[in-house]
Amino acid sequence: MSTALEPVTSSASHKLARERFSRKSLADKYPSEYSKGWRDRREEACIVKCLGAIPSGSRVLDLPCGKGRLTRLLISRGYGVIGADVSEAMLAHARENYEAYQRQQGGKAPGVQFEVRDVLATGFNTDQFDGVTCIRLFHHFDDAETRRRGLTELRRICRGPIIVSFLNSFALDRFSSRLKDWLKGRKRVSQLPIPFKTFAADVEAAGLTIDKKIAARWGISSWWYLILSRRQTASISVRKNAA
Can you give the pTM of this predicted structure? Predict the structure, then answer.
């Protein structure tokens, strides 16, 4: 069994992300499905490539699941799915959306659990999952310690592949965004890009290794997707490595 969500000591960026995505006003506007636009189509294609590392029949955690944008894709691949998010406002939509899908399928779609969980302390058991998808999360954390704590927790609860996304600072769209922010005198507090070497160091510090990396559009789009696995001989001290 897994335990309930517990309070965690967190950084300013973690608190900001948690507060932001817990707002009902934001959850109401957040997308629940992939659009037909090229960015969404490209992201979905990258995720599908990554999912090839997780066998059908696996028990998969989608964290953060948001409004359940990935749920049906994961179900279609034969996974047993738990959707988790720190935001109950997001989860309310995710449950509603999936229930509507089940009705469309005449009740034949499998059940999905949606639970309130925090990536820094999920409350799930060690090795509870065969795979994890963690999409559109780590670019909200501007400090290495928070990223490493989250990655370490995913390593603890997942014995199989861990699929994560992050924003690579080496990309044309990041240059364009920085220029727009500078012209408007705006300081970005979310969607924070980092160099690949920096995120790779976070992965290593968490006792993980990068098995595969996929760029949405190399050098143009900052969206990158990684397949991670445990480094079996790892000895982890997140705070020491983050220092």
Answer: 0.88
